[in-house]
Amino acid sequence: MNLQDQQPHTLRKMISDGQLTDHTSGMAKGFIQANVVILPSKYAYDFLKFCFKNPKTCPLLDVSETGETSFPIYGKEANICTEVAAYRIYRNGELIETTSNISHLFTKDMVSFLIGCSFTFEHALLAAGIPIRHLEEKHNVPMYMTNIPANTSGQFKGNITVSMRPMTMQQAIKATEITTHFNNVHGAPIHIGNPEEIGINNITQPDFGEPVTIKDNEVPVFWGCGVTPQSVALDAKPELMITHAPGHMFITDIHESQLSN
Amino acid sequence: MNLQDQQPHTLRKMISDGQLTDHTSGMAKGFIQANVVILPSKYAYDFLKFCFKNPKTCPLLDVSETGETSFPIYGKEANICTEVAAYRIYRNGELIETTSNISHLFTKDMVSFLIGCSFTFEHALLAAGIPIRHLEEKHNVPMYMTNIPANTSGQFKGNITVSMRPMTMQQAIKATEITTHFNNVHGAPIHIGNPEEIGINNITQPDFGEPVTIKDNEVPVFWGCGVTPQSVALDAKPELMITHAPGHMFITDIHESQLSN
């Protein structure tokens, strides 16, 4: 079975039935995959406002109505409790469990957020002949904490996290042109070049993911990263917060071609 | 004094001091003007979510922190209580007063929203040689209620309101190209042509504003209108809601050239 050509609802059903437990990278080609953050409703306003105030790092795709397990646009028939292959459960900011089903934790008071993911624009970069080193080297993308503060919203505050892809400066310019049109999934880069300018002191040691080779004629190019809203939310130490586990994204019903910008 | 060339903070100071009470159309040329909605905090989450779910009709520019009179991006030094020339006070959905100062009503529980206004893209249309009939005829823009439902958020629901500008089909195509780049202020048109298709039965009788001439070779072009969030919020009958009075917009510190898209 070629998972790349499957429809999102088919894959989500397989995940729900426990038949599919892998990373979702490359599945349902062309369909938007999303980071997931689920919080009690008392945090929902400040978190929604955090996303609004930080569109490059926290590009909000959809938000459920309170207590609903589906999404108005990106997953009308979805069940957020079972259709992500691996969830992480945090209590008071501490990871306590990784699980494949959160039905027992979900209440009428929960709100689910879908946040854009850079998997989406990597297809477009590849199509333009721009290398994606972590795919070439079969690694997870390297991610770094920066010294750039996100815009604060209520109790949600902290510095932004970036993902990094090395390429030539000519390719970096082309990649900027391309990702400018992907505002729903991070948009243009946050920084190009010297990592120290944004507080990254050792490019060979990412804070998350794995390091990749940077060739002599290449510069590192940094994009806002969907890890930011998760890490900022964790810093606020909510009594309960549920996210997807890294790489196990929610596969939405919306195709890239439906993104308006 | 040429108000067109004044800086936003100068004009807002004049408004605050009672020296300026006019419509703000044409003032501080190139700076974004905004619709204003002020609500008690218990409505803020659903209203913010309403804006997120209806980006064309309710393009949210900025939102204050609860109880703050300034805005994080569009008016860092602003005082929303005095710097709009005319406010409307609604209680339980009924207009009870128009006033030039709301300091006596503003509490630590209020949240202020700034919503994009089509004044912003009219400059760009004029620059491209597209006629703006209501400016030519010195009218307020004609606005119509449609049969197109907005996306519901909590208690906020209703049909969207549109503004209309007549032009030739060639100009309509050009105007669509141009306004596509103004996503922060309504973006591309919602409809072009036959008004009945969107529930407007008499184009000569707008629901708000004033009618304009439509020439034989012209089609009506409809954009989402900032009246929508106000009318939807009023339908929810909040115990207190404060808005700008029509035409008396909040003049923001952000220039058109700073809009990223």
Any overview of this molecule?
- Chains A, B: Its EC number is 4.2.1.-.
- Chains A, B: It comes from Staphylococcus succinus.
- Chains A, B: Keywords: Lyase.
- Chains A, B: Belongs to the D-glutamate cyclase family.
- Chains A, B: This is Putative hydro-lyase BU057_09020.
- Two copies of one chain form a homodimer.
- Chain A has 261 residues and is an alpha+beta fold.
- Chain A folds into two domains: 3-25 and 32-117 and 237-255, PSTPO5379-like (3-Layer(aba) Sandwich); 119-225, 2-Layer Sandwich (PSTPO5379-like fold), CATH 3.30.2040.
- Chain A has helices at 8-16, 44-53, 119-127, 133-136, 169-180, 227-235; strands at residues 31-40, 60-63, 87-91, 94-99, 110-116, 143-149, 159-167, 191-192, 219-224, 241-244, 250-255.
- In chain A, the strands form two sheets. In chain A, strands 1, 2, 3, 4, 5, 10 and 11 form a seven-stranded antiparallel beta sheet that branches.
- In chain A, a hairpin with a 2-residue loop joins strand 3 (87-91) and strand 4.
- Chains A and B meet through helix 2 of A and helix 2 of B.
Topology:
Two copies of one chain form a homodimer.
Chain A lengths: L7 H9 L14 E10 L3 H10 L6 E4 L23 E5 L2 E6 L10 E7 L2 H9 L5 H4 L6 E7 L9 E9 L1 H12 L10 E2 L26 E6 L2 H9 L5 E4 L5 E6 L6
Antiparallel strand pairs in A: 1-5, 1-10, 1-11, 2-5, 3-4, 3-10, 6-7, 7-9, 8-9
Pfam families (chains A, B): D-Glu_cyclase
Family (chains A, B): Belongs to the D-glutamate cyclase family.
InterPro entries (chains A, B): D-Glu_cyclase, Putative_hydro-lyase, UPF0317
